[in-house]
Amino acid sequence: MATFEYNALTSSGRLMKGTIEASSPEQASQMLTEMKLTINEISKAKDKGPKTSIGRNEFLLFNQQLASITKAGIPLEKGLRELASDAGSTAMKKLISDVADDLEAGDNIEQAIAKRQKKFPSLYGLILKAGIQTGRLSEMLTSLNRHLEIGIRTRRIIGEAFCYPIVVISIVAIIITFLFSMVIPSFAEILLDMSGGEAQLPHLTNVFITMAENVWQFWGVVLLLLIVVAVIFILLSGSAQGRRFKEAMFLKLPILGRLYHNGILARMAEAMAMLAGAGTDMPTCIRLSAGATGSEKTIQECEILASEIENGSMILEAGQFSRMIPRLFLYSIQLGSQRNELQDNLYSLGEMYTEQTQYLQVRLQSILLPVMIIFLGVIVGLTVLAMFLPMIKMVTVMM
After folding, report:
1. What CATH fold (topology level) applies to the domain 56-146?
2. Contact 237, 246 (CB under 8 A)
3. Which residues contact 262 (CB under 8 A, 6 or more apart)?
4. Residue 116 CA to chain centroid, in angstroms?
């Protein structure tokens, strides 16, 4: 079926424009004629193309539905067709249908996903392939949803923790700017007239008056510095070496660095647990889970770690050089492998690091707000003192 645009007149002579679905222009014309319309023009509608962006929540819902369908024993191709018909958006419907078309054409699931790897989460094709081969597809899809949900939650925690300082500092900056641009200048004129010039004013008062006169120049310099930092940030992001340098600097920040590091470890532990459940060997598991974190330093270290394991080293001794992956993380992996409890240990690690991330977020908020309030209080207090010192001095002289 195709969509046709038409321009026609009703029986009363009123102009009508619209679209109609038909298999050919002739059928579309016949359908319009049956509707008692006089056709002026009819043409095939231009294909606008569906949106390609797939929301995370939409994908989570799709993945959970797919897990339910496979658990019920429905073949993957048929299950995808069913999900495509019920998809909430045109983009999701087209994406699922295209994958089903490839499967029916003879491609395996990993190949079908690889063609659209930018539209699916990392590791998705591998997880589906492992689930089909082991007969545990439903279980693997449920594990994937767990991994994605923890990843979303961790990113949200980190995002909120980063936004909080920006919001608090912005509010403090607005209040201080108001004081220095509106309040102090109005007092300065009165004080200069009363005292007979700057030479007669207290030093603190002169300092604050000078700061008020240059407040907009100060913010101009701050804006310029922010632009320079943003440009450097963008340039560093263009190469793996630059991203590693940027990440190393960021990890040195108090609280924020630890919060970011714990978020990486939480995502890596969850990805490793999922891959271990799929039967992936340890070196591949380490490489793929590091890639899922998006951390260049972690990817670099895990490549060396995986190579050492392939050369016969135990994971604990192979990871002695690592700074991104703590000894506890490596010890839990080694212990889990020896006791056949690797997946459970990794899930526990993921939960632990997610909880630590939440704790650091709360700690950041509990520290930052009082510090900003104290800082603002000191600035306001000094401003009041600077404005009243000349009056106090004058009263003292008169007495």
Report:
1. Receptor-associated Protein (1.20.81)
2. yes
3. 353, 354, 356, 357, 360
4. 20
H/E stretch holding 20 reads strand 15-22
Put simply, whether the predicted model's pTM sits higher than 0.90 gets the answer no
pLDDT tens per residue across all 399 residues of the chain? 567 777 777 666 666 676 776 777 877 787 777 777 788 788 877 654 434 446 667 777 777 777 787 777 777 777 888 787 777 677 778 888 888 888 888 777 777 777 776 777 666 766 776 677 667 777 777 777 776 776 677 677 767 777 777 887 888 888 888 888 887 787 777 766 666 555 567 777 778 888 888 888 888 998 999 899 889 888 887 887 888 888 888 888 888 888 889 888 988 888 888 788 777 888 888 888 888 787 888 888 999 999 989 998 888 888 888 889 998 899 999 998 888 888 888 888 888 888 888 888 788 778 877 887 888 888 888 877 777 776 666 656 555
Please provide the size of the chain in residues.
399
Which residues are 246's β-sheet partners?
A: none
DSSP 98-119: HHHHHHHTT--HHHHHHTTGGG
Q: Domains of the chain: which residue ranges?
A: 2-44, 56-146, 150-399
Alpha-carbon gap, residue 124 to 63, rounded angstroms: 10
